[in-house]
Amino acid sequence: MIPSRQSFRPIQRVITLTDLPQEFSFIRRHFSKLAGPAALNLRDDAAVYTPPQGRELVIAADAMVEQVHFLPSDPPGTIGRKLLRCNLSDLAAMGARPEGWLLTIARPPGVTEEWFAAFSDGLLQDQKIFNVALMGGDTTSTRGPLVLSLTIIGSVLPGQAIKRLGARAGDGLWVTGTIGDGALGLRALQGDIPDPSGYLAQRYHLPQPRVGAALYGLASAAMDISDGLLQDAGHLARENHLGVTIEATSVPMSEAAQKCGETWLKTCLTGGDDYEILFSVSPEQEKRLAKNPVVNTTTGPVTVTRIGHFHNTFSGAKIIGKNGEVLNFSSPGWSHF
Amino acid sequence: MIPSRQSFRPIQRVITLTDLPQEFSFIRRHFSKLAGPAALNLRDDAAVYTPPQGRELVIAADAMVEQVHFLPSDPPGTIGRKLLRCNLSDLAAMGARPEGWLLTIARPPGVTEEWFAAFSDGLLQDQKIFNVALMGGDTTSTRGPLVLSLTIIGSVLPGQAIKRLGARAGDGLWVTGTIGDGALGLRALQGDIPDPSGYLAQRYHLPQPRVGAALYGLASAAMDISDGLLQDAGHLARENHLGVTIEATSVPMSEAAQKCGETWLKTCLTGGDDYEILFSVSPEQEKRLAKNPVVNTTTGPVTVTRIGHFHNTFSGAKIIGKNGEVLNFSSPGWSHF
């Protein structure tokens, strides 16, 4: 094909090809500050990462969608942090240490520069807290809601990843921290619950992933609670072909959650957004925990609580009240569909 | 907090907790067949992956949005494959071999089971072609367009990742395959160009990533062409603080592209969607290529073509016509914003 100048459309605007394209300058403005050594200054097609010698990698991906997982009115500084923390929680549940992360953004035209500046500043704070750095990603446009997708890479000593499979009948069911704050926080933000201290809203916006939780050798199986305690306990039981019974009176609740009163118990037990670790413990290991029900994490020690036990009946999860009666809910938890 | 049965809403429907939740069964139906050993049957919070000993990892992430990167009417079997191939192309440009991938899906209610069945069947075909397996991912709902985000993990011998930085003044500019087919294919699908054989449309739907291209030691710098030859050549020049001149008459075009005529040259050179590798070659290495302008890849040998050269003037990319005149375009390529 022989080109001729006449075949081209007239120049509409002058383009200096040494200028950065819009996408590149957007990335530099907001994401260069997050980039770790593997990111190659976010200038290449891919990151180059030397995995830590003698370790396995643990890799998870999670997406968050505006109007589904967060609201346009949520503080932008917390939205990215929450997504990062949800992914960190997946690593924590498997006993892995964070190594790096990648982010793709489908960006609607209405999201401002100020929004992204606050978004990435929040992420920078969390990178420092959890000792992790950005490896790469992609930005694209969309006419729909903002969609953020994050892939996190962590590492663990070979064979030490804690899986969902491994619980046995007779094991106790334990959780880190307190349950229900995140779900109540959402309802507080919606105006349904008073939250004078802002504690619940803060727990909703910024869950506390239990990164570095020293569960290897202690937990026989583990997962993080994102979709509601009852539903996620059901997953854990089902994966192990067991049943699990949770005593509602044992489920640890924060002071703020307790103040909400009994009518909100269902929200606490099925609402999700906890990002605590749910794990099974053999009777032998339970003796250790009974003496000192605390587990160390990267961000400090966390109290752990026995909330139930596994049994041989393949029946999923049930919750019983103070008189041993089964509590029934219309839905066991959050559905992504 | 002491629960009492009265505080719960009446049972709306019976839930058998041993049943799979909707999200899990969706994943099993469509994605279990793609899962490799690292995926742990897609049942855990994260994948566990043992990186190949003595190699570095190369990691890229790309998102595709309905209405931006593909149309709802596009064949579902090709949409996932195209996204996978775009990511494989990023690995190929850095000389990396694919290891595994993760996918997040933000799914609008209108996308059917049949659509996802065809989508994942297509991915299965490509997994066999490119010897790669799914590691994990996430599905969520959205009220907006379908958004797919893919993270790919590859590996390379230490220090052998080919980067964008490394071209020198005097190096030649080379490309694999042919340029413009993808961009013309889109216009053909839009009815603007005849495409009797369907070749162009097929190149748009299923680009051919040059996985395994043996460029180490040959290319001084490389990237893949996704946003248009002119724009991407400008990126390569800028990263190296150089200028690059492309001779339009040297740019390799397929027979189908040549048949479209000169009026479509701009589309070929700036339209993007090529997923060919653009690379710089030193004069010494060019002697090798001059004798045999072919590079081996995983899917067979590919012809490579010299289309221009780098020079010391930091001026981005320009394209000259057959009489040495500079061809001006209104836009150098595709913008993601």
From TrEMBL, chains A, B:
Mg(2+) 3 binds at residues 45, 90, 224. The keyword Transmembrane helix does not apply. The gene is thiL. It comes from Acetobacter thailandicus. It catalyses: thiamine phosphate + ATP = thiamine diphosphate + ADP. Keywords: ATP-binding, Kinase, Magnesium, Metal-binding, Nucleotide-binding, Thiamine biosynthesis, Transferase. SUPFAM superfamilies: PurM C-terminal domain-like, PurM N-terminal domain-like. This is Thiamine-monophosphate kinase. Mg(2+) 4 binds at residues 45, 90. The lineage of its organism: Bacteria, Pseudomonadati, Pseudomonadota, Alphaproteobacteria, Acetobacterales. It comes from the Bacteria. Mg(2+) 1 binds at residues 62, 138. The keyword ATP-binding applies. One of its GO terms (molecular function) is thiamine-phosphate kinase activity. Mg(2+) 5 binds at residue 227.
